[in-house]
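Weekly structure sync, notes
Attendees: PL, DS, HV (note-taker this week)

Item 1: SNX8 protein
DS walked through the input record. Source organism listed as Spizella passerina. Sequence as pasted into the shared doc:
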Amino acid sequence: DLAKPPVNEPREAEQFLMQTPQGNPLLLSHTLQELLSKDSVQVELIPEKKGLFLKHVEYEVSSKRFKCSVYRRYNDFVVFHEMLLHKFPYRMVPALPPKRVLGADREFIESRRRALKRFINLVARHPPFSEDVLLKLFLSFSGSDVQNKLRELVQGVGDEFVTCRLATQAKDFLPADIQAQFAASRELIRNIYNSFYKLRDRAERIASRAIDNASDLLIFGKEL
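Item 1 (cont.): predicted structure, written out as tokens:
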């Protein structure tokens, strides 16, 4: 049996209004190890496709932090992502893998599963996201209408600029050279992004060649 959802009613969202952070809000006050220890989420593919007419892939999402497992479709991830963008319009919300309209092959399905796992772990370890009620509901609600529940939580709450108590002082925290820093950071992020995807492509090619080599060696061994 799945765990009983700890969050069920939208009115509970009121107690999750963002609190004033301690220290300088411009500096990250967490170490990498602290961020990694926030949660570890597993995303596993359920072998059988669901649906009577339109078949769809379903995933079992297990959270170490909330000690429960829930079933999620790709469209559930899409709604969750949209609600994060709505509530946190000024933060870098991780991107979702694309949805493939036509029949997806096994390689694409596995690639998307890994991408969804990366996405949800990035969100679960992000300081503000990890403490938000949206994440708690997504990882623990076992009902069938999780998409509506996510939308209900956001309705009438407002985005982060409205709920954060530091919003009225935001301009006071901006350094004089903010534009120069922003331009430099954007260029750095662009370079990191490009390098990351080059590394990912090479790693996938290495893995693909390793699978082919293993298959060839198996055939070679049978023929000896």
